[in-house]
Amino acid sequence: MRKNKVSNDDGNKYQERFNAARKSTWVSVIANCFLTLGQIFTGFFSGSQGLIADGIHSLSDLVADFVVLVANNKSKKNADPDHHYGHYRYENGASLIIGLILIVVGIAMLWSAINKINSPADIPQVHIVALWVALSALLIKEALFRYMLSVAKRVKSSMLVANAWHARSDAASSLIVALGIMGNLLGFKFLDPIAALIVGLIIAKMGYSFLYDALQDLMDRAVDVEIEDEIKKTLLATQGVINIHELKTRKVGDFILTDVHLEIDGNLTVKEGHDIAVSARNSVLKNPQILNVMTHVDPYNSKVLPVHLSPGNWTPGR
Asked: Which residue range is the domain that position 273 belongs to?
């Protein structure tokens, strides 16, 4: 009873998702090109390690943007004989790579900042131009984050959400860098490398979060309990479905694959049982996140209490 959900009717929706992701990512690429060059060069000439660290963070964003562009292009490919469910897991792979990039960048920043803190005599006096560049970068990154997150939510892309929050981490790091530069200008020179140290910690922590989530999804982690409950309710609301068991879910990109056993009246004909299973499947597929539903029909065992009536599973209205 397997059937590919992606049809010609859905083509426009997926193309719109691809186009929106590509546009928002190119906007991020252009912004990060200017930020990387401005921050790193200004950081070197003004003597601000924090601004240099922030510029390297922007550079990691630029690399992440190109990873997203490649993954977005690959994931839109249709199913083929070697990939029956399409290529959506390119997006999970992209999130994993972004996480690795952030961890490496974060650790490198921590190492550099610690070395500076251990040699306070080598910490230079920062020029005030570094402060203006840091504040400008803060405004640009916050605006970029809000734009990218709105697009990610509209097209329901976890990969774009990850990239948007990467931009937000840049905004947070720019704020910390600006504060560190202010402290340096006021005579507390050690605050600039401390700002770089905090930025490194933020980046490494976010990288670990992205890496962990991507690995879990690539290992077929089940979806949230709330989503599984909605699938159960939809199946049990289908006329002819008496009970369900062995409901399994897994992520493939931003979509969900579902397997389930349907218990129906064993006295029905094969065609009648098939029609009930098709009806149940189509009801679940109305959720745009569900890519495919594999159903298996079992004769109902009256000795087993249905899932929706068993102790601990019953709620009013079910």
From this structure: 225-300
